[in-house]
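Check out one such.
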Amino acid sequence: MIFQEMSRKNYLERKVNNLLDACSQGKGRERVVSTVNFLENYVRKHFNDEEGLQVRYHYPGYEGHRQFHERYKNELSLLIRKISQDGADMRAITQLNQEIAVLISHIRLEDKRLAEFIRNSK
């Protein structure tokens, strides 16, 4: 399971890097729709899997973690709706990059803590 998470994280980072490369070439708007669709699916799966592990191993930080997930999903959903309605202007792309940075930081910090907790629980 941990390996699968690492593979998904690497895939997420590749998708983000592709978006950033496209932005630097002036083609970011074309890639935003596919990136937000991927991101929404990724977040849903990742957070569900993560919460399942937290419940299974009685992770003490579960409730705070779950609350973060709910807030993040709501913010991402609002941003995706805005991009769908108004298009991918520079402000939307900047907000998307910020949301992705928050997600990557969460994965690097919080998921590492969860993995360590699970390893120590066995």
